[in-house]
Write a structure and sequence with these properties.
116 residues; 84% helix; single chain
């Protein structure tokens, strides 16, 4: 099963190259939903997040979390080398490492940005 998934991902990357897209942009587009999900999990587990949003209504908290994680998904991969992005598409462990690094690098800045 993993072999088939890797084969499909490789074909997608090659199709992206033929279509004129860079490998990195294909990888970024594939990793954005993963990063957004990881961001939501990180916020949910964060004691600082729980304390800072304690007085917010549930809908306001959800909206702020959505805005923060959208920001993280858009900006998190800018500091990750293309080589690592491509490896993340094929290796589950690398994907996990890249996702964690990307979220940690950008979540603080996005939280501060959402409060402005």
């Amino acid at each position: 099963m993993k072999y088939r998934l890797r084969l499909v991902l490789t074909i997608i990357v090659l199709a992206g190259c033929i279509a004129g897209c860079s490998d990195a942009s294909v990888a970024k587009n594939m990793l954005k939903p993963v990063i957004k999900n990881q961001c939501a999990q990180e916020l949910e587990q964060s004691k600082l997040w729980k304390v800072s949003t304690y007085l917010m209504t549930t809908s306001k908290k959800q909206q702020v979390a959505q805005d923060v994680c959208e920001c993280v998904a858009e900006n998190a991969l800018t500091d990750i080398p293309s080589k690592d992005l491509l490896r993340a598409m094929l290796d589950e462990e690398v994907k996990k490492q890249v996702t964690q690094k990307a979220v940690l690098n950008s979540v603080k800045a996005c939280i501060l940005q959402s409060k402005e």
